[in-house]
Amino acid sequence: MADLTPPGEAPIPFAADEVERSIPDRLRELAHRCPDDPALSHDDVAPVSFAELWSSVEAAGRSLLTYGLDPGGVVAVLMPHETIAIATQ
Fold first, then answer.
1. Is residue 10 part of a domain?
2. Does a structural domain hold residue 27?
């Protein structure tokens, strides 16, 4: 697996039992453990904290449920191949 830790920054440690957890589970944990830490950042865009990102994920999930998606259902996402697209959505 590639190391995505920015140069000069320490990686966020995960215990061995966390490796099998889903991305939403990990994000929820980080939103509670370090809510104000930056989760996403890009050159000219203000950083998004783990708490802000988790809040957006929860809102998107609730919205998908109103359209009839079942929990655990599959969703396709179409967006540009740019980091900025994630940071600004």
1. no
2. yes
Determine, yes or no, domain membership for 71.
Answer: yes
84, 87, 63: which is closest to 75 by C-alpha?
Answer: 63
Q: Which residues touch 75 (CB under 8 Å, ≥6 apart)?
A: 64, 69
Per-residue pLDDT of the chain (89 residues; tens, 9 = 90+): 445 566 677 766 666 565 667 788 888 999 999 999 998 887 777 888 999 999 988 888 888 899 999 888 888 878 776 655 654 44
pTM value is 0.66
Q: Which residues constitute the domain of residue 50? A: 17-88
- Give the distance from CA 71 to its chain's centroid: 18
Number of domains composing the chain: 1
